Each structure stands twice: as structure tokens, then as C-alpha cells.
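1st attempt posting a full record on here, be nice pls
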Amino acid sequence: MLQFPLWKVILIVLTLAWGVVMALPNVVNMSGAPGFMPREGVNLGLDLRGGVYLEMEIRSEDVIGGRLEVFARDVRTALARTDSADPVTHLAEVNGQTMTIKLTRADEAGNFPVEAAIARIDKVNGPLEGGLAGGKTYEVTRAGPDSILVTVPENSENLMMADALAKTETIVRRRVDPDGVAEISITPSGVDRLVLEAPGEPDPERLKSLLSRDGRMTFNIVDDSPSAITAAQAGVVKPGYRLLSGPTTGDLLVRSIPEIVGSDIANASQGNDEANRPQINFRLNSNGARKFFETTRVNTNKRFAIVLDDVIMSAPNINEPIAGGNVRITGDFTMEEAQDLAAIISAGEMPAKLQFLDQRTVSATLGRDSINAGIRASVIGILLVAGFMILAYNLLGIFAVASLAANVVLIFGALSGLGATLTLPGIAGIILTIGMAVDANVLVFERIREEQQSGRSLLTSVQAGYERALSTILDANITTLIAAAILYLLGSGPVKGFAATLGIGILTSVFTAFVVTRWLTVMWIKTFKTKKLSV
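the predicted structure (as C-alpha cells):
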């Protein structure tokens, strides 16, 4: 245990040098450093920098209703005319977490082809991603002589919610940080909630405005019949249609089931028209371009409405089939509005509307006060511990203080290297780690003192001290590390920050206490031929 061959010494020095290099950006501006050097220090959390905290929820009824609307398009395709079967005319209506399909044409005997329709629907009713192979996403049953009921079983609902939460997290990140450069923290909380922390963001209303929109982009065929529009305005809406309006189009009657949806859009960007006015350009993916061409081919000389969140942006006329999948929206946009709309469309449609449950704003001044308080607490703690160790253990205390400094450097180096976020509870974790590191040294030094008092030589006492204290220290640190891991996995926000710094600190503490301090002690004894240490 007291042997330090050259490879061990090199490994220790390289580890300490790595910690210094990684921690350097926290105290020195490294913007002009060479490419292989780190340039960013530890990310400061919301409580240290100030910013916005939002807690959001997605509701299961919204998620399932949205899925059923998408499935309604597949049902329409399945029941349409094929080469070997007649079309089954129907009306599909989504009501909350169920969908009712009403057949509208019977055979000569007055019977509706319900069983044949169910058989066709089952062909497009495959398993969800992550579900059992060969299983069905929806339960499709006969509800009457001319109707079919589509419901969502519990296992499918659970998979839908998990998928919706993951997609919502991605979309929120794309909207809030489209360039991927901001220090945004988005973490799931439970099965239906997300927590957003945006350090340095001064305006919570801007974030809520970006996130409150569904981003539901659809293309719907328009019924321009004056009588149908007049009836809809009077409250009698034609089955299978909805009455929507827009700032430039007025009221229009559009099909409830869209031809193109947000998942058919590849990307969107802000551009300018021929008069240099802001517009929104977007490109459909291959599947969307194919459907768009087929829609414009079948509905030539009709109008289609481009709808965003139930507001008609424009309603151009289809003069001929449109190939290529490139579409643009013109209107009375400002540059900022066009950019925000493009970001919303490009990020994709929210699986469900976000409900804001909690909102907190931390001022930058309060964040600076927290940093100063944390620094003061850390410095006072380190000075008190260092003073005690030197007074109690003399030279060994100096070695312990040196390893303590190395421990702090390694912690900040690891936090910087991992891109972790330091919060006020994280500072508390570092201070706790300092105490635990000192505790390990105290156990070793007391063992060394006992061995020297029993008459053993200095080297034998040092070796026995480290060997006998090892199991005790490892037991204590391993149990604490397990607790930190549980806190990190099950906690969120401040709890997670505390657990991260505590876990990293435990690993660095064991390294500095059992490797760095021991190495310094052995090197001193062998270099200066010391026979006894005052402990």
C-alpha cells in the first residue's frame, strides 16, 4: 500500500492536472484558449443566475383525442374504394377519448356493412411503438346496427402518454432553444409533467407564449357553398365539417379531418416574398408531398385552408396538382411574428396542449446574492476545517488540506467536464463532501497515531493506519453514494443538483484521501527519512 511506482505517480499527476485544466474556465476567461482546452465552466442553475421556472402538464384526454383524430384519417383511407371492394361511406366523430364511426349507406336489404368495415379498420389498427407485436392500439367494436365505437385500452393509453411526454420535451426544447446553445433544463416529473428551468431568461411571458400554442398545422379542404356557410354561421354545421375563421379569410367551412398534418412537414423558416414582406416557407416530407399532390389532384378548382391552431392563415385556390412539397404562407406578419411562427411550425405539433401549473421568477440580483452566500459559506467552512486539521495533526494536517484543495478542484473539473449545472443545493453538497473527505483523513490519522503509540515504526504505522481505516471509510462512502444515486434518479431540480455534486464529491474524496494524501505522506517520509510524525 505504500509503494508508488512511476506509472502510479504519473497517473496521479495526470488526474490532478486534468482536474486543474477542466476547472480553469471557472476562474479564468478561456475564450482564446487552444481548441483542445475547455472554454466553458460550470453551468449555474436558476437559483444562482436568476431566470424562469415553469411547471407544465399534458392531459391524457388531449393526448388520446389527438391520436384518435390521426387514426380517423387512416380509417377514412381504409374505408375508401379499393380495387376489390366498394367504398364504405361513413362519418367519423372524435368525442373526448372515443371515436364513433357512423355508416351512411346500407345495402339493398337495409343492412349496414358493419363487420366488413371493422375488418378493414383492423388492417390499419397496428401496435404502438413499444407495444406487443401483433397487438392492436385501439379496441374497435360494433356499437349499433350502423355504428362502430373506437376506444383506447389502458396499456395503449400508458404508451401514448409516455410517448407524448417524450415528444413534448423535445418540442419544448426546440421552441425555447432552436439553436441548441442556451442552458435550458427540461426534466420530466411523473408521467404527465415537465419542469422547465431557463437560467438568465428575464421574461416568463415570452416562454409561455412560445409554449402555449399547440403548433397544430393542418391543410383542410374548404366547402365554399354559400348555403352551407350561412347555415354553419347560424349554428347548423354540416356533418364532417367545422366552421373556422382567419384574419384575412373570414369564416370558412372546412373538413374536420385534415388532408395534411404537422407530422407531414419537414421544416419551416422565415423568408420574404417578392415585395420583401415577411412570409413563412415550409417544406413537406416525402409522405406529405405525396399526399399533398394527391389532394390537389383530386380537389382541383377547390380551396384548401392552411390552419394553425384553428386559425386560418390563408386559403388559396387549387388551380392544378401541386408537386414538390414546397409551400409558403403570406400575410400581414412582422419579422418577429414570422420567426416565432416558423419556430413553432418547425418544432412540430404538441401532442397535447400544455397546462401551466406553476411559475416562478428568480431575479439576477437574488442569484448573485446566492452565489456570494455560497462562496462565503464554502470559504468559511474550508478555513475552519483547514485550521482544525493543521492544529490537530500538524504535518499530516497540511497534507490533508492539500488533498482537500485537490478534492475541490477535481469536483469542479468533473462538473465542468460533464456539463452539469451547479445549484445552491449543489454548493451544499460540495460543503458536505468537504466534511466527509476530512472525516476519512481523521480516521486514517487516528489509526496512525494509535500504531505509533504502540511502538511501531512510522512506515508500518502509516500502512496499518490506511489498511485498517479502509473498510470503514469505504462502507460509509458506498452507502452515501447509493443514497445519492437514489436521490438523483428519483429527484428533480434542486434535489438532483445536490445528489450530483454529492456523488461526484464522494468519488473524488475517496481518491484524494486514500491516494493523494497517502502519496504525499509516503513521499515526505522517504525523501526526508522521517522516523516519527507528530500526530
